[in-house]
Design goal:
The complex is a heterodimer of chains A (387) and B (286). With 387 residues, chain A is an alpha/beta fold. Helices cover 45% and strands 17% of the residues of chain A. Chain A has two domains: 44-152 and 285-364, Periplasmic binding protein-like II (D-Maltodextrin-Binding Protein, domain 2); 154-281 and 368-386, 3-Layer(aba) Sandwich (D-Maltodextrin-Binding Protein, domain 2), CATH 3.40.190.10. Classes of the chains: A alpha/beta (387), B mainly alpha (286).
Chain lengths: 387, 286
């Protein structure tokens, strides 16, 4: 019996060819994790699970030529709760080698055995890292370096300079004259600390660390916010970049606590908006690099240290300064920019770096994504929502 | 008998898929809501407890659940009030081509993402938005109306605009079941338009009314974008409080809130079916 008498048009596949190709495809698909693991094992690729702001896109290719490593960056969503849960109880340690996470959860992650300490002697550029960034309280535990600073900045108040003149206090957010014309972020991680900084600095409230409030301190801060919310002080609580920009650009509010890039966007749209230098202090935040235990188990510990060293080497810092106005706390950013960029680019990097460094020369309280009473923060935030 | 067996055999993969992808996760949520979070493992352990359900009563969470259902119900009613006349016009008045165009027009909101839809309302309802600008230009107001945006009014506008198409199609389905003879008989007996509408058409389209309401109600109850983008300071919905508690890894509480909402929604479906006879909608398909 003739098995196949049908003519196959040029470019088409016979059933046998198709079956062979399908099987080949399936085999390749099945083998791909093995191939990825092999790349991992050879120390050629680091799986970096970080906040989107740490991503430099195509520029990651530079690591290949500089240190012979490739970086596979995945956005972690920047929501500390699910990230910590996935690192401790989920598969993040099996899938990713490094985390880039907003500061606060490091000690918890180290206690749970999800991350391991860095060996700073393997990071040649460690002595170029700014001392105050090394001193971020969450980064060391029992003398061990459980996190290293990757990006730092400090946040305060965005305000309409044309309407309010010079603003230098969080008092503007709680000023009854601006009732319904101010906003805060819809997140206790930022809004509770801003209110606490104000109460501590301007009203001498008995608050020790605005980033890690005790039960009583938290009650005081949240009752204060609830009172102002009931009085109609806040136009809204904002969420995300677009909403933040829109509130300012469409003149919905005259002042709000928030991120400095929103000011830059407002200025780009021709608005007379400014970023306050509050006398009560800034909310400092660090996005820190954490070394996963899984990476060390897979033999990628040294490669991860190599990548950390590269991050402080200037190229990465210059990229972030130019693209987002964020700063890697290393002396080498401006050095690299001066030697490798046109004058305008180098000046811009220097200006961004100097601007952020200046903020940290004053009073700064560190944002903490995982305060001791973190579940109580959520309870109070619900009470605020429902008040 | 052969056909029934054949039909069941054909349908079984679909049933299995629904059971696995639909009911299994719901069952897991229900079971896990009675478990306890273990700080040592950062996961839940099978210690039977009502703690999570007790926590629903704290920090005003019940208030959010009930007010979310209230907002969803109001959105459902408003969608019906707007959607019923539209469906009536499409089915009874418009020519075939026009009906086709009108039905297409109601699907336009789905051409863009829900996020963009909600965001665009901020540009319409804001202090410098279209409506305030028109009112100011017409001299009807001297100051922009602040309550147009970041208010319950704005949330309702966002919900109705997003979910209106979901009432139109069940209503059209139910209107197809209204025999033209009934309407003719009503008119022959001297009933005007309103009398025919209220004594013939509306009673006969009750299943479609309830189905349309249910679609909007369920989707609005689970929405968050419209509330976060258009609501006032701290405006909340069920999905927002679930997200908030997930953020602090209080998984049992998140599961308990979901379980309570599921039970309430199932109860609404069963009661509604009893009253409005939802199953009648599908009698044609038997």
């Amino acid at each position: 019996m003739k098995r196949s008498g049908r003519l196959t048009p040029p470019g088409a596949f016979s059933r046998r060819q198709f079956s062979a190709m399908s099987l080949g495809g399936l085999a390749a698909f099945a083998a791909s994790p093995l191939m990825m693991r092999a790349a991992h094992a050879a120390g050629t690729e680091i799986a970096f699970w970080g906040t989107g702001t740490l991503d430099i896109g195509d520029a990651w290719a530079q690591t290949q030529s500089d240190i012979g490593l490739s970086v596979n960056f995945t956005d972690n969503g920047n929501d500390p709760g699910p990230i910590v849960a996935r690192l401790v109880a989920g598969n993040a340690n099996a899938v990713y080698d490094l985390s880039g996470l907003q500061g606060g959860a490091e000690k918890e992650l180290a206690k749970q055995g999800a991350i391991v300490p860095w060996d700073t002697s393997k990071i040649a550029n460690w002595d170029k890292v700014w001392q105050w960034a090394k001193d971020i309280p969450y980064l060391t535990d029992n003398g061990q370096q459980i996190g290293i600073p990757c990006v730092v900045n400090a946040d305060s108040i965005i305000y309409r300079k044309d309407k309010l003149g010079l603003v230098d206090s969080y008092g503007v957010i709680f000023d009854p004259k601006l009732k319904g014309r101010v906003a805060m972020e819809d997140a206790w991680i930022n809004s509770a600390i801003f209110a606490a900084i104000y109460l501590k600095g301007a009203e001498n409230a008995p608050i020790n660390d605005p980033g890690n409030l005790t039960e009583d301190e938290l009650g005081l801060v949240m009752e204060f916010l609830i009172k102002h919310k009931r009085d109609g002080q806040f136009r809204t609580f904002w969420n995300g970049w677009e909403q933040g920009v829109q509130l300012v650009a469409d003149e919905e509010v005259d002042a709000m606590t928030g991120w400095e890039p929103i000011v830059l966007e407002g200025q780009r749209r021709g608005l007379d908006v400014a970023y306050a230098e509050p006398v009560e202090g800034y909310e400092g935040w660090g996005n820190n690099l954490l070394l996963h235990k899984g990476a060390v188990d897979r033999g990628l510990g040294d490669a991860a240290h190599q990548l950390a060293n590269w991050i402080y080497d200037g190229f990465y810092g210059a990229q972030l300064a130019l693209s987002r106005g964020y700063v890697v706390p290393s002396d080498k950013n401006t050095e690299w920019a001066a030697g490798n960029l046109e004058t305008a680019g180098a000046d811009q990097v220097k200006s961004v770096v100097d601007h952020v460094a200046k903020k940290f020369s004053g009073k700064v309280y560190w944002q903490n994504t995982r305060p001791d009473n973190f579940q109580l923060y959520e309870e109070w935030w619900q009470k605020l929502r429902n008040s | 008998m052969f056909l029934i067996r054949r039909g069941l055999a054909l349908a079984s993969p679909g049933f299995l898929l629904v059971l696995t992808l639909g009911f299994l996760p719901l069952a897991i949520i229900l079971v896990w809501s009675f478990w306890t979070w273990d700080p040592a493992t950062y996961w839940i352990r099978p210690d039977f407890s009502f703690d999570a359900y007790a926590q629903i009563g704290e920090a005003g969470r019940w208030h959010v659940i009930l007010s979310s259902l209230g907002k969803a119900a109001l959105a459902g009613v408003l969608c019906l009030l707007v959607g019923y006349p539209a469906a009536l016009a499409i089915h009874f008045v418009a020519s075939r081509p026009l009906a086709f165009v009108l039905m297409g027009a109601f699907t336009v909101p789905f051409f863009t993402s829900y996020l963009i839809r909600a965001f665009s309302w901020r540009l319409v309802l804001g202090r410098n938005g279209l409506i305030n600008s028109w009112l100011l230009d017409l001299g009807l107001i001297s100051e922009p109306l602040d309550w147009l945006l970041f208010s319950n009014f704005a949330v309702m506008v966002g919900l109705v605009a997003s979910y209106l198409p979901f009432v139109i199609f069940p209503l059209l389905l139910s209107m197809r079941r209204v025999e033209p003879n009934f309407i003719a008989a009503s008119q022959d007996l001297g009933a005007g338009f309103l009398r025919t509408l209220f004594t013939v058409i509306i009673p006969l389209t009750k299943p479609g009314i309830f189905a349309g309401f249910l679609f909007v109600f369920v989707m609005a109850a689970g929405s968050s974008t419209e509330v976060q983008m258009l609501g006032g300071a701290g405006a909340s919905m069920i999905s927002i409080i679930i997200n908030d508690v997930m953020r602090v890894v209080n998984f049992p509480l998140a599961f308990a809130i979901s379980a309570v909402v599921l039970v309430l929604l199932f109860a609404a479906v069963l009661i509604g079916n009893r009253i409005f006879g939802l199953t009648k909608l599908f009698e044609d398909f038997k």
